[in-house]
Design brief:
The protein has 172 residues and is an alpha+beta fold. Helix content is 17%, strand content 42%. The mean pLDDT is 81. This is Carboxypeptidase regulatory-like domain-containing protein.
């Protein structure tokens, strides 16, 4: 009845996991997404950091007719975190301090990847010593006006964060 389209749910993810700059090897990570109105629960996939603490996840595209239904929205919750069953001593210590270790948490909207989020997901630099902070990413070129995306993360993007501070000054 409604034509199916490809919804770009999660762009390719490339990152590294460290503790105070030292690579963390063999740490199991999980990535989850939930497409509002389409999925009742998050769907998860997994990866493990290599000897240099590097990890990646492939792009996810979901074929669905949902965006073509009347009044349907496209909101996708995205999460990347250390697997709660991870047993390494470093992760156990981090979990003692925090209930869970979230590398990335955001909500995406639309059928295509949001360039501001995809750019960050392509170079996650995550250090367990970092406090999780809420990053505000401003998209001034959004068709219906300025949009602010919220990302909760222990990852950092120093060069991109400088640009966001300047944008915030402009729009606040």
């Amino acid at each position: 009845m409604f034509k199916k389209v490809d919804v770009e749910v999660f762009p390719e993810v490339i990152g590294s996991l460290t503790l105070q700059g030292k690579p963390l090897a063999d740490i199991k990570l999980k990535r989850g997404y939930q497409y509002s109105g389409v999925m009742e629960e998050k769907k998860w996939d997994y990866t493990t950091t290599d000897d240099e603490g590097k990890f990646s996840f492939p792009e996810i595209i979901h074929r669905t007719s949902h965006p073509n239904k009347p009044f349907a929205g496209t909101r996708i919750s995205q999460t990347i975190k250390v697997d709660e069953n991870e047993e390494s001593d470093i992760i156990k210590a981090a979990k003692d301090e925090y209930s869970e270790v979230i590398l990335w948490g955001s909500i995406s909207s639309g059928e295509k990847h949001i360039s501001y989020l995809a750019e960050r997901l392509a170079r996650l630099d995550c250090d367990l010593a970092n406090e999780a902070i809420r990053n505000e990413i401003i998209d001034e070129a959004f068709p219906s006006g300025v949009v602010r995306y919220q990302v909760l993360s222990i990852c950092r993007w120093p060069d991109l964060e400088k640009l966001e501070i300047e944008k915030r000054k402009k729009f606040d």
